[in-house]
Amino acid sequence: MTYEEIKKNMPEEYESRKKDKLRYRYPRGESYLDVIQRLEPVIIELERQRAPVVVISHQAVLRALYAYFADRPLNEIPLIEVPFHTIIEIQMGVTGVQEKRYKLMG
Asked: What single DSSP character describes residue 75?
């Protein structure tokens, strides 16, 4: 369902998610907090890598990973802009995270 369809057909779910996007869990789905917990072993493995890694995933997963590596607060995770068709290159440095974004489609 699109967000407009959810708003029309399930207004209580739409409002619940709007009030607390971080903790909201769709029926039979995951909340951002669930995603973060599920990603813990992935993060450990990513931290062990010495060569560049490409992660292709859903926005919620990408937001959670980005927030972890960019040291962003938990409450900001659902609000992080992760545009479609874009490569976000992050590099860890002594001054923090260096970021470059590459738009793939016009």
From this structure: G
Sequence-distant (≥ 6) Cβ neighbours of residue 97 within 8 angstroms: 69, 70, 71, 90, 91
Per-residue pLDDT of the chain (106 residues; tens, 9 = 90+): 899 999 999 999 999 999 999 999 988 999 999 999 999 999 999 999 999 999 999 999 999 999 999 999 999 999 999 999 999 999 987 888 899 999 998 6
Count of beta carbons in the 10 Å neighbourhood of residue 69: 16
Range of the domain at 16: 3-103
CATH of the domain at 75: 3.40.50.1240
Are the beta carbons of 27 and 41 closer than 8 angstroms? no
Structurally, the chain folds into a number of domains equal to 1
pTM for this predicted structure: 0.87
Nearest to 74 by CA among 105, 30, 36: 36
